[in-house]
Amino acid sequence: MDIQSTQTQTSTTTSQPVSASALSSDFQDFLELLTAQVKYQDPLEPIDSTEYVAQLAQFSTLEQQVLTNELLALQYEQAATTTMASLSGWVGMEARAATPVTFTGEPITVSPNPAAISDDVQLVVRDENGDEVQRIALPVSAEPYVWTGIDPLTGEPMEEGVYSFHVESYSEGELILTEMAEVYSQVTEAQSQGGDIVLILDGGQAVLSTNVTAIRNPAT
Known about the structure:
Number of helices: 3
Order of helices and strands: HHHEEEEEEEEEEEE
Low-confidence stretches: 1-18
Mean pLDDT: 79
CATH topology of the largest domain: Immunoglobulin-like
Number of domains: 2
Structural class: alpha+beta
Distance between the termini: 34 Å
Shape: rod-shaped
CATH architecture of the largest domain: Sandwich
Oligomer: single chain
């Protein structure tokens, strides 16, 4: 649900207490009218009491429905406020997830997770077209690796753009596992979509908050 629709529903809920107040006033007027009818009814043709009971029951049911709707609206408003507060906590943080990342010249922290039985680990860097641009030997470890984006042939920084990092695990020369490595990216926007929190990263990539494995304050 977007912000605009949330505001619309919140605005609608604020009118509920007025309806409940009006209903309470109408209920009091109904009781006064009922009392007057009983007091001044024709003794020779008394009004059927079951009709009064039915009207009272119907009016009481309606009152309970309005009060229930008011309570539900209040709970929704509180839930929406809580959701917005949780969304704001993501913005500006660096989230770690298995996703491509935008290289702007600043080092990128890569978190590999090679197979434990591997004896050779390779970090394969690919550009946004999926072409391999660099291959780096890594230790068999989950220790973070800082990719500087320097071309080993020219010594110059690579072009800015979107890159992905894939970890290849080998055992006795055989490839046994390939998976995308997790990287840190700054969160520029957080959205609530269908009950899920979607994070928009600084390169425009979108990732579910449930796929984020760590967060940290951005480096200063």
